[in-house]
Amino acid sequence: MIEVRDLRMTYRAPIRDAGLKAALRTLVHRRYQDVKAVDDITFDIQAGEVVGFIGPNGAGKTTTMKILSGILHPTEGTVSVLGHVPWQRKTTFLRRIALVRGSQPIGGPVELTVLDSLRYQQLLYDVSAKDFRDNLEELTDLLELAKLLPRQVRALSLGERMRAGLAMTLLYKPDVLFLDEPTIGLDVSAAAIVRRFLKSYAERTGATILLTSHYMGDVQSLCPRLILIDKGSLQYDGPIDALAAKLAPYKLIRVSAPDAKPDQVPQVGEVVEKDGTTWVIRVARDEVAHATTRLLNELPIVDLAVEEPPLENVIDRVYREGVA
Ligand SMILES: Nc1ncnc2c1ncn2[C@@H]1O[C@H](COP(=O)(O)OP(=O)(O)OP(=O)(O)O)[C@@H](O)[C@H]1O
């Protein structure tokens, strides 16, 4: 469905010294600096997969998304999406894909009402009257749009714009969806509506989705697979569950022992959390069996659980220290 081979993108960014004089000088003599945004990325995505595409700020996620959706022409490499070269921008390709950007969910005229924007989209994408009625009914229901339909786009809040933007995009049922930070800036409940909607949309339609987000809640609830990039290079591509095992060399043991004395807890690892008589202890992965046995033998334990470290912590560590 999506094939990316040896993808590279270098921007030529204009630069100049500070000050008015320097600004005037650039009118006759421009200087540029090369910025490597994507540096040799290769991956495949199969039909129906929902993949989280993550990385720190400036990693190259948006650039890759723009190339895959046909907005940018890469410097090097080959890409095939639905059998098309995206930047050729054939109508048959554009009608089957969509790029939704959380920072700018609606691209059309802001004077139109939401319903008129949807009708405009119907014309642009040649959606039949029946499909329009059916899809609109379904999207209105799932995205809680009824009250928004008669309102002007310009007067919508960011969360409302996102919901309306998703409806406009999904009205023509694209097979491939590129979502660039779909919950950015949304409050907890608006983000939850968007997440719930995307999950059910993916399950019902079997759409292929590539999603970037800085909120691990998004990727954890939606994406069984993660692709992690940093400074334009691929760092990890695999199941989300295996990421912690590969990248975090420890597990957490949560023990609850109401009758234990505070100094009775054996030194099996670093205590990272303490709440009354419950301790969370960080233990090296290959020490877990030994540590658990000691805890069970030496403490009056009522509950013990071995947990993977939270995804946030793993990702934060990877962003700060890189992949070993
Ligand atoms: N039009 C452009 N001209 C020059 N450099 C650019 C341009 N767009 C992006 N860049 C640079 O390319 C690099 C990758 O940017 P990109 O927006 O793809 O990163 P990102 O992973 O989406 O980041 P974020 O999480 O902050 O949105 C950055 O160093 C950025 O400054």
TrEMBL record:
By its UniProt entry, which SUPFAM superfamilies does this protein fall under? P-loop containing nucleoside triphosphate hydrolases
Q: Does the keyword Nucleotidyltransferase apply?
A: no
Keyword line? Antibiotic resistance, ATP-binding, Nucleotide-binding, Transport
Signal peptide start-end: none
Its domain of life reads Bacteria
All copies of domain ABC transporter, residue ranges: 15-256
Query: What Pfam families does this protein map onto?
Result: ABC_tran
Q: Which Gene3D superfamilies does the UniProt record give? A: P-loop containing nucleotide triphosphate hydrolases (3.40.50.300)
Provide the protein's localization: Cell membrane
One example of the protein's molecular function in GO is: ATP binding
Membrane topology per record? Peripheral membrane protein
Q: Which PROSITE patterns match?
A: ABC_TRANSPORTER_1, ABC_TRANSPORTER_2
Concerning PANTHER family, the annotation shows: ABC TRANSPORTER ATP-BINDING PROTEIN (PTHR42711), ABC TRANSPORTER RELATED (PTHR42711:SF4)
Q: Supply the name of the protein.
A: ATP-binding cassette domain-containing protein
User: Lineage of the source organism?
Assistant: Bacteria, Bacillati, Actinomycetota, Actinomycetes, Propionibacteriales
